[in-house]
Design a protein that fits this description.
3 domains; 295 residues; Endonuclease III, domain 1; Endonuclease Iii, domain 2; DNA-binding; mainly alpha
DNA sequence: GAACCGTGGGT
DNA sequence: TACCCAAGGTT
């Protein structure tokens, strides 16, 4: 054994205990189901927009079996405008699988979690670590950015790679409980201090050990991400169509959807078809359209 | 690996 | 105003 050295975890774990935001899904007593719901809602959606819907969901559907019993239409309405509604559909399907195949208990095993709809590399490990206390690396966009800067000395994380898991696993303390806290701390640092656009290095607990800082904060290689377009995209049109159906009490005539996008009828038709393919919309025998399972 | 999938707040 | 970005997953 050589001389003991201060690790990133030695600094970040205490920092997290002192500075962590009081988010509802972090409170004692939160179930694994509650953690899973929060993780799905937080996929590409900011924390501030998730807090209220999360509370409402857990009150209405406190267990997977409760949500599994609800029609998909109600799940989509409760999802509201959180975005990417396929996430809601997959969460509904995951709840049905958990209720039917796992005794209404959210699995703790990463592989089993990954086999559920809508649960990928990140979410499976987040649930394993934050809900079940396992010592597994949890790598999201925040963690990749913190590791890129503090450890690798780069301005930004590149594209996600399989290597990310090993890079992060190396930072976890041996103690299982501390490892989960470290993962939460890395995410918290990336979300509140080591942010993408204008990092607050003056307030950073690890700036003294940061490789990017040591190198003089070199600039990145330009835009790491492609600009997201929005106006006129299929995503916008699909959003408009679904918004009509969410706002209606039941099935609507085709004309109601036509009115939602007059700019380009061909695009509107194509988007409606893709929503049908995705299972986000259904058509009744009488020609009207509705949310799935509604009738 | 890249494109696609919503929505809205921050700068 | 435009553009950036957000606790990703699936194809």
């Amino acid at each position: 054994m050589g001389p003991t050295t201060t690790t990133l975890a030695d600094v970040l774990v205490p920092w997290f205990r002192a500075h962590a935001r009081d988010l509802p899904w972090r409170r004692p007593g939160t179930t694994a189901w509650g953690v899973l719901v929060s993780e799905i809602m937080l996929q590409q959606t900011p924390v501030a927009r998730v807090e209220e819907p999360w509370r409402a969901w857990l009150e209405r559907w406190p267990r997977p079996s409760a949500m599994a019993a609800a029609p998909a239409s109600e799940v989509l309405r409760a999802w509201g405008k959180l975005g990417y509604p396929r996430r809601a559909l997959r969460l509904h399907a995951a709840a049905q699988a958990i209720a039917a195949d796992h005794g209404d208990v959210v699995p703790a095993d990463v592989e089993t979690l990954e086999s559920l709809p809508g649960i990928g590399t990140y979410t499976a490990r987040a649930v394993a670590a934050f809900a079940h206390g396992q010592r597994v690396p949890v790598v999201d966009t925040n963690v990749r950015r913190v590791v890129a800067r503090a450890v690798l000395g780069r301005a930004d994380a590149g594209a996600a790679a399989s290597r990310d898991l090993a890079d992060t696993e190396a930072l976890l303390p041996d103690d299982t409980a501390d490892a989960a806290t470290m993962s939460a701390a890395l995410m918290e640092l990336g979300a509140t201090v080591c942010v993408a656009r204008t990092p607050r290095c003056a307030d950073c607990p690890v700036s003294g050990a940061c490789a990017w800082q040591r190198l003089g904060r070199p600039a990145g290689d330009g835009p790491a991400r492609k600009a997201q377009r929005w106006a006129g995209t299929d995503r916008q049109v699909r959003g408009r169509l679904l918004d009509v159906l969410r706002g209606a009490p039941g099935p609507v005539p085709a004309a109601a959807l036509d009115a939602a996008w007059l700019t380009d009828p061909a695009q509107r038709a194509r988007c409606l078809d893709s929503l049908l393919v995705d299972g986000l919309v259904e058509q009744l025998a009488d020609g009207r359209f509705c949310l799935p399972g509604e009738q």
